Amino acid sequence: MKKILLALMMVSLTVGSIFAQAQQEYPSRDITDIVVWGAGGGTDSCNRIIMEEMGKVLDVNINVNNVTGGKAGMIGMTEAYNKPADGYTLCGLSESNTTAAVYGWDHTMDVWDFFIVGGSPDILSVTPDSPYQTLEDLVKASISNPNSIKAGAGGPGSIHHLNLLAFMEGSGAQLAFIPYDGSAGSQNAAMTGEITVVITSVAEQAEMIKAGKLRPLAMMTPDAYTLASTTIPSSFDMYPELSNFLPLGQQIGFAVRADVPEANKTILENAFSEAMQSDAVKAFGEQHYYNLSGKYGEEAKEIFKNLESKFSWTLSDLGSAEVDPATLGIARK
Amino acid sequence: MNILNQFSVFFTQIGSILTSPGQLLLLFGCTFMGIIFGALPGLTATLGVALLTTLTYGMSLNVAMVALMAIYVGAVYGGSFSAITLNIPGTAASAATAMEGYPMAKKGLAGKALGLTTTASAIGTVFSILFVVVFIPLISELALQFTSVEYFLLAFFGIQISGSISCPDTVQKGWLAGFFGLFLAMVGTDSLQVYPRFTLGYYPLEGGIEVVPVLIGAFGIPQIIQVLKEQQAPPKATKLDKIIPSWKSIGKRLGHIVRSALIGVGIGSVPGIGEDIAAWVSYGTAKGTSKHPEEYGTGCEEGIIATEVANNACIGGAMIPLLSMGIPGSPPAAMLLGALLLHGVSPGPMLQIDRPGFITEVAAILLLASFAMWFCGIFLAPRVVKILQVPPALFMPVVGILCIIGSYALGLKIFNLYLMIPMGVITYYLVKYGFPVPPLVIGVILGKMADANLRRGLMVSEGSLKPFFTRPVALILIIVIFVTFITNTSMYQNFKARRKAKKA
Predict the structure, then answer these.
(1) Closest residue on chain A to B336 (Cα)
(2) Has residue B214 got a pLDDT over 90?
(3) What domains appear along chain A, each with residue ranges and CATH number?
(4) Where are the domains positioned within chain B?
(5) What is the model's pLDDT at position A24?
(6) Which residue in B191, B326, B459 is closest to A155 by CB distance?
(7) Model confidence, pTM
(8) Which DSSP helix (H) or strand (E) runs through B407?
(9) Which of A205, A206, A186, A185 minimizes the C-alpha distance to A197?
(10) Does the structure's ipTM exceed the value 0.90?
């Protein structure tokens, strides 16, 4: 009898708590979005736009905080990860955060579920006074005279550097990579004529291309791109091999802990999809030369895991990874 | 856009800000905040602009620009307050100001020194605005002559010149201090091949030695120990009526001011280097061309004018590559670039076409910000000078705590304290044995730039040293470095002394 009573009590308690939870539907209070990169940067402005729109859909405030610092944005990610897995804490991040584990963060990207807003695709351009009119010209010249053509693509281990490495592997081009502090440094060096080839994102190059200070040759993505009424062909058209290595695009968005209750995740996903359709997000994408993505769930996770593998192993090959990606269970892709 | 149009945009902008009480309040409030940021060791202009950027998100572009430019101008100037009154420069940009400002304060002329730096900073900013409006295309062309080789030489020259001019006895000690700074800059993950150097396997060192803790430790700690040890009596009360410098004292140094402003604008317009180098180069040039160089280091008015005109003129200079090419000319300008992008402005060659008049509007805001800075400065100076009346035994512990908070606040890293305090103790002994501090700090600041650019330049030239001699700007820099070196050796000094003796 006692046992039955106890069991009954347990059942009623469980049911009651479920009922109570269902009554207080997520989200019932403000959500915090911790952006791991600085104010005014790509990840920050992108998060502010999408959070504004998602806040409207969910009918709550979403506060955006920048918590920067640490390698690969570790400080912000740690702060977001240490909050309860209830969906009230989001983490604004980008593809560059996937290096965190090999830089000593306690977790791999498995602990997150991602929502990708988009990113600006990478583009290969040359200086206007160089003789290369097409991508083939450039690749041929670089093969006949290896490492004589200098290329800038941000710092070592950056997304643009990965694009350059993948491009050289897929096309056979032999360019000499000159590392700079960030994309601006590379583009500046192209302006001074120190380097000939630049691989950075369309967003970063757009102004210079429009002013005729850079000549765009090809996109590092499978599709052509139209910028100021000029169509820039895809490098895949000329070197189909590239599809084995590319695209490796910028992926800006946010994440929640993977162990957030499924019901809350679904609510977030629906709000995210709706926000992606808003005019504000579309206008933002156009203005910042983004390819809008809107991916979430398994699809988004796959993209980030692929990037994590690419970034981690490239850094490991460069000798700068602090933790061997193999010991973290990150497979080489 | 023709000149007339430019003028009308310029004055419309000024009018619209002056007639809007909200914007006016913002202008003064942000300038004031900037000065505080600049004056407190550890809080820099870059940080000020960065923090404010987040807050401007909801403002319109124009209002946001008012806030951001005001805090930028205020912070670059504010560093001179603590440099003069405490001998602890609030920012690296005002390290050179401390060289002359603090001796002046010791003589009881702190009020006068603050008045001069305030006016000099305002003049420097106004000058630089003229250049922004008139010379944008020209200067951005020149800045394009700077490749890795030139950056290396410029950084090297910056360390060399700060070593040459800041040493009390022999110049070699200055250079040695500079090389020590250069060595410290090598610690950490190298930016070209991402290889950890001199980290001894100790993880926090991988991020490298940060400038701010070194700056605070190297300037702050020795000063605190020194003052407490000597039990210095507070300096004589300054005459407060002499804060605003007379027209005459400004007028007769006009040539000097114009030269310093030109140096500031020029250096500001070269991407990547900022207010700190501008101040040092200007100070060095002033000393080198002065008729009485022996007065430098003892509280020379010309010295603080040179540094303050140049570091504020750098602001306008830094706006030139930012607005014309989208390349920030100084670290705070890099934050400004982020803020502009946040507000949907993409600076670059197309800016003049996309948003005609934007550059002129920025110039108008800069002009107002420099006036606001002047008023705030003149208002604050007599109050700040009173700090000197507080007995050091009471005041220095407070400064000590500020030093600790300032170092920790940067990235909230406890490691910064482990760096700052030993750095302070080391520099205390260095100072005791006659080594100057500024070249050490400049070495840390410019060391990374010198190292990365030298190796990058050699990567591009595939190991050849030819570009050092074939590129015109590089050649000029090499000659300047060589001449600076020769004229500072004892051989040359003896030779000069002998010739003088012969003549007499």
Answers:
(1) A40
(2) no
(3) 29-119+250-328 (3.40.190.150), 122-244 (3.40.190.10)
(4) 3-503
(5) 64
(6) B191
(7) 0.74
(8) helix B392-409
(9) A186
(10) no
